[in-house]
Specification:
- The complex is a heterodimer of chains A (about 270) and B (about 210).
- With about 270 residues, chain A is an alpha+beta fold.
- Chain A has one domain: Histidine kinase-like ATPase, C-terminal domain (Heat Shock Protein 90, 2-Layer Sandwich), CATH 3.30.565.10.
- Helix content of chain A is about 65%, strand content about 20%.
- Chain A contains 10 helices and 7 strands.
- In chain A, the strands form 2 sheets. Chain A has a 5-stranded mixed beta sheet with strand order 2-4-5-7-6. In chain A, strands 1-3 form a two-stranded antiparallel sheet.
- Chain A is elongated, with a radius of gyration of 29 Å.
- Chain B is an all-alpha fold and about 210 residues long.
- Chain B has one domain (about 1-25, about 30-205).
- Chain B has helices at about 1-20, 25, 35-55, 60-80, 85-105, 115-135, 150-175, 180-205.
- The chains are: A alpha+beta (about 270), B mainly alpha (about 210).
- The interface of A and B includes residues 9, 12, 35 and 38 of A.
Chain lengths: ~270, ~210
């Protein structure tokens, strides 16, 4: 009687153990497989994003290191050398070399201080002024509330816009043209940048240089649009981008580009 | 052997309750907060059953029938909270209620275990567990499933009811003896409360 009881208990133990082990093995195999698959997918997505980011940074750097700009700048420096104006040529060569260094240095960063961006723009505009001489005037106005050392800005966004303003807005204008860059404080984590020129305006520029614009501006605009989209997608920044022809709203010629930068502090943590 | 297994079961139930008390702060704001009260009720049920048999010399079936009703309702309420199939769980609740009403008329409360609600809740918990695993597999939480408290709780329930269902359904045919049946139930209970304990302990790792 006792032996029979023991036997049936062992049978029960055996079947229950078998059931438990099978159920657990099945559960853990399914869950571990799914977990690994999901981790792989996330890794692939992260790698893809990183690759995309590097591609965009490279494209942005290429857009900044525009061969026409390099060529024109060196030509202008060469002109001063030929004129035996050693002091001016040295001064501009120093500025040009500093600008190139900034392009490379900042292209490796995700964002820089607003003060660094302003320094890059100053350098860039001074070299452009070398080419345009008295026909180019520029101003960089920083809101008193905005501390340029405190606020950060994604790299390689503003300079291509200023370059567009000069090459497509002011280049085709007769007489002196000006470009004004405003850095306005909006809140503790946001600010706006306005790039305003009094050139021929985006509509007119498109008509005049239809083919050239198609190749160059559309390329740099596409890179910019892609970078802004990527920045918004990553969630660290929210950037609003608006471009308007001033003749439509202010009855003045020229183009106005508005960029609103909001830094998502929580996501950055 | 039977007594030893019973003592092991009580130890596991008490351990699950003690761990639930000690780690209360880790899950007090989650749907699992009800498990503390439930495990206290489990311990109370076991004590009540022993008192009934040893001191009052009456059968303890009514204690376990009460336990079936309360534990079944608790599990369904918990699944209602954690699953997104709210209407389905409400329908399950209705089904369970009907099974209790049927048992009231067709089965004996004091002289035997209520089979209808037991079988009903077994099937319902198995379905709910499957739904939970399906939801978890399709969510990003699957990456950290080993530290998910709900995962261990549902696994414990699944193992218990998976083993319990054939016993419950086949018992009249295989003429399994009362003692063997109780032994199997105790073994499954030990495994389930073991998983419940893991579910609380995994919160420490989280």
């Amino acid at each position: 009687m006792f032996k029979e009881e023991i036997n049936s208990i062992f049978i029960i133990i055996f079947f229950i153990t078998l059931l438990v082990v099978l159920a657990l093995v099945f559960l853990f195999v399914v869950f571990t497989n799914r977990k690994n698959k999901l981790i792989n997918e996330n890794l692939e997505s992260a790698l893809e994003n990183q690759k995309k980011q590097h591609e965009l940074e490279l494209k942005a750097l290429r857009a900044q290191m525009n061969p026409h700009f390099v060529h024109n700048s060196l030509n202008a420096i060469q002109y001063y050398i030929q004129q035996n104006d050693v002091e001016t040529s040295e001064d501009y060569l120093a500025k040009f070399s500093k600008l190139m260094r900034q392009f490379f240095e900042f292209s490796r960063k995700q964002y820089i201080r607003v003060s660094e961006e302003i320094s890059l723009l100053e350098n860039y505009l001074q070299i452009e002024k070398l080419r345009f001489e008295e026909e180019l005037e520029y101003q960089i106005i920083v809101d008193s509330e905005l501390d340029p050392d405190d606020f950060q800005i994604p790299t390689m966004i503003i300079q291509p816009l200023v370059e567009n303003a000069i090459n497509h807005g002011l280049f085709n204008k007769k007489g002196t043209g000006s470009v004004i860059i405003h850095f306005n404080y909006l809140s503790e984590s946001s600010f706006e940048v306005l790039v305003i020129d009094d050139g021929i305006g985006i509509k007119q520029a498109k008509k005049l240089n239809h083919n050239i614009l198609k190749e160059n501006e559309s390329h740099s605009s596409a890179v910019l649009a892609e970078r802004l989209h990527f920045l918004n997608q990553r969630g660290l920044w929210h950037v609003d981008y608006k471009i308007e022809d001033r003749s439509l709203s202010e009855e003045k010629s020229g183009t106005k580009v508005t960029l609103k930068f909001s830094q998502n502090i929580n996501d950055e943590d | 052997m039977f007594t030893t297994t019973r003592i092991i079961l009580w130890s596991f139930q008490a351990l699950a309750f003690i761990v639930a008390v000690l780690l209360w702060h880790k899950y007090k704001n989650t749907p699992q907060r009800g498990f503390l009260g439930f495990l206290a009720f489990v311990v109370f049920t076991e004590v009540a059953a022993v008192v009934c048999v040893s001191m009052c010399h009456i059968k303890s079936y009514w204690v376990y029938n009460m336990f079936t009703v309360i534990s079944g309702s608790f599990y369904l309420y918990w699944f209602y909270q954690i699953l997104s199939y709210k209407k389905l769980i409400l329908a399950f609740g209705l089904l369970f209620f009907i099974s209790i009403v049927l048992a009231l008329f067709q089965e004996r409360f004091f002289l035997g275990l209520w089979r209808i609600p037991l079988t009903t809740i077994t099937v319902l918990v198995l379905i709910c567990s499957t739904l939970y695993f399906s939801e978890l597999l399709n969510s990003s939480r699957v990456i950290t499933f080993k530290t998910e408290q709900q995962f261990w709780l549902v696994t414990g329930l699944l193992i218990f009811y998976l083993g319990f269902l054939p016993l419950q359904l086949l018992m009249p045919y295989i003429k399994i003896k009362g003692a063997d049946y109780l032994f199997a139930i105790m073994l499954l209970n030990i495994i389930m409360y073991g998983f419940f304990t893991i579910s609380f302990l995994c919160l420490r790792k989280k």
